[in-house]
Design goal:
The complex is a heterodimer.
Chain A (H helix, E strand, L loop, with lengths): L5 H19 L5 H36 L8 H18 L7 H33 L3 H18 L9 H10 L1 H26 L9
Chain B lengths: L1 H17 L7 H36 L5 H15 L11 H33 L8 H20 L5 E3 L3 E3 L2 H47 L2
């Protein structure tokens, strides 16, 4: 079997092992190399982000210039992008002339989208229970209702009995236990994925 | 005057986004595309202004720093930019390999020391002697039991049986079912938290809309 992109694989394994050993072993020689590699990776991550944004711009540009599947909405993307990028590069991202774009366009739209989630979530929860009536969806819905009530603060009044408060405190342990299990599962999965990359079994960078 | 104009823009965009509640419409799409364009443009500016210039360009231009060493990230960055061209994109695999290698090491370190060890240590805290009161023990036992059963739910190793596929032992199946219950409760609690948070934001937006209408009405 011919190994695909052996140079790239060697770089990933070599650099990854040096950084990992720099974290795990208290060797003075490894620490500066680890810091240097981390600094470089921050730069590369920024450039990768820029490449992703430019690719998005290219895709929208293609959409408005294509005669077959022209999408006029992409024009708003292009206009918004060029205006913000031009002003931002000219005056800097924190300038008074750039801030209204963020405060009056980005922030209200972002907040409205989050607000819209309320409606979407409630509708999808009702649909879930209507379509899949299993014991799992029943527990999920019951838990949602209980924690919605608990989070809304209706039990925080002085009239609430001590028993209800004790029950709520006990109920709070259950999601904490599940969350710990899920967190441990994610951590184990992350370690496994990282090791697969460092052993060259997974090569998400190759063509 | 300028403030009123910007408030009017925020008001129109808020209504355009909230109009999605009655169905997908052109106003919603215009607001969304404009938002994505502005966000992408702003993110590009922040990346250039806060990372690429101070960390890459300035050390290269400044002769007092080790410019020679910075030639390597410059070369890797230029190779990464070839990803924009379909013909040259194969050159971008080298900086991507660098990024993935460092990322894998950082993820392993973060998962081990940030989550795995700290969570295992926290699971045992309820059983340590200074806190070993009965309520602490019960809480600790529930937390430990929930964490173990949740983890066992994601264990899919079993025996292959004809016509049934992979079958887990009966005791694992039972414990996994309890774990499934814990997962359902946890996701329900998270879901409730997200609904409450988004509801708070929605109330904030509706309050802004009402306040803006009030400023228009004399």
């Amino acid at each position: 079997m011919v190994m695909r992109s052996p140079v790239a694989t060697a770089i990933a394994i070599g650099v990854g092992l040096i950084v990992l050993l720099g974290y795990l072993l208290p060797l003075p020689v490894l620490d500066p190399i680890r810091r240097l590699f981390l600094d470089w990776s921050i730069i590369l991550a920024a450039v990768a982000g820029l490449v992703a944004i430019l690719n998005l711009f290219k895709a929208h540009w293609r959409k408005i210039s294509s005669s077959r599947e022209r999408d006029y909405y992409s024009l708003f993307f292009i206009l918004g992008f060029i205006l913000t990028a031009a002003l931002g590069l000219l005056f800097g991202p924190t300038d008074e002339r750039v801030r209204p774009l963020i405060m009056s366009i980005q922030l209200p739209v972002e907040a409205s989208l989050v607000g819209l989630l309320t409606i979407t979530f409630v509708v999808s929860a009702v649909r879930l229970f209507a379509l899949r009536r299993s014991w799992m969806s029943g527990i999920f819905l019951a838990s949602t209702i209980v924690f919605l009530l608990a989070g809304s603060g209706v039990f925080l009044t002085s009239g609430t009995s001590q028993v209800i408060k004790e029950v709520l405190a006990a109920l709070n342990i259950l999601p904490a236990a599940g969350a710990r299990g899920i967190l441990l599962g994610i951590a184990l999965g992350s370690v496994l994925t990282g090791l697969r990359v460092l052993l060259g079994m997974d090569r998400p960078y190759s063509e | 005057m300028t403030d009123t104009l910007w408030s009017l823009i925020a008001f129109v965009l808020t209504l355009a986004i909230l109009s999605y509640a009655i169905g997908d419409n052109p106003l919603f799409r215009i607001a969304l595309y404009t938002f994505v364009g502005i966000s992408a443009g702003y993110l590009a500016v922040v990346l250039i202004d806060q990372v690429i210039f101070p960390r890459l360009i300035t050390p290269l231009v400044n002769p007092s720093t080790a410019s020679g060493v910075m030639a390597i990230p410059l070369l890797l960055s230029l190779l990464l930019l070839t990803r924009l061209s379909p013909r040259l994109s194969f050159l971008g695999s080298l900086p991507m390999a660098f990024l993935v290698g460092v990322g894998a090491a950082v993820i392993i370190n973060g998962a081990l020391f940030g989550t795995l060890f700290t969570q295992v240590r926290a699971a045992g805290l309820s059983f340590t002697f200074p806190q070993s009161v009965s309520s602490g023990w019960i809480t600790g036992m529930v937390l430990l039991f929930g964490a173990i059963t949740t983890l066992l739910y994601f264990q899919f190793t079993g025996r292959r049986e004809p016509g049934k596929g992979i079958v887990r032992p009966a005791w694992v199946e039972w414990i996994a079912r309890i774990g499934q219950g814990f997962i359902a409760i946890t996701l329900g609690a998270f879901f409730a938290g997200v609904i409450l948070a988004s509801l708070t934001v929605l109330i904030g937006r509706l309050d802004f809309v009402l306040q803006f209408i009030n400023t228009l009405v004399p």
